[in-house]
Amino acid sequence: MQADNHRRAYWRKNIRLTGSLMLLWFGVTFGVSYYARELNFDFFGWPFSFWMAAQGSPLIYVAMIAFYARSMERLDVAHGFDESDV
To answer: Which of 19, 76, 71, 83 is nearest to 27 (CA)?
Structure first.
C-alpha cells in the first residue's frame, strides 16, 4: 500500500510540473503573439514582439526542456526511480 502511495505522489508531482511548463509554453507561444501590437518597444534594436518570435521563444523552450530534465532527474532520485543503478 505504501508503494502505491509513493507512486501516486511521484505522478502527482510529475503532472504538476508538466502542467506548469505547459502553461508557460502557452503563455510564451500565444501570449506574445496575441499582445504583439502592445509590445511595440525596442529590445536590442529590434521590436520586442519580433525578437520574441525569432529568438526569445526558442531560447525559453530550450530552457524549459533543460529545467524539466533536471527536475525529473531529481524527482526520480527522490522517489527511487533513478537509472544510475542499471
So the answer is: 19
Could you give the CA distance from residue 16 to residue 71 in angstroms, rounded to a whole number? 12
Cα→Cα distances 81→10, 28, 46, 57, 66, Å: 9, 31, 46, 32, 19
pLDDT along the chain (86 residues), means of 10: 84 96 92 78 81 82 97 92 70
pLDDT value of residue 3: 76
Nearest to 69 by CA among 1, 17, 23: 17
Do residues 68 and 20 touch, judged by C-beta distance below 8 A?
Answer: no
In three-state secondary structure terms, 1 is coil
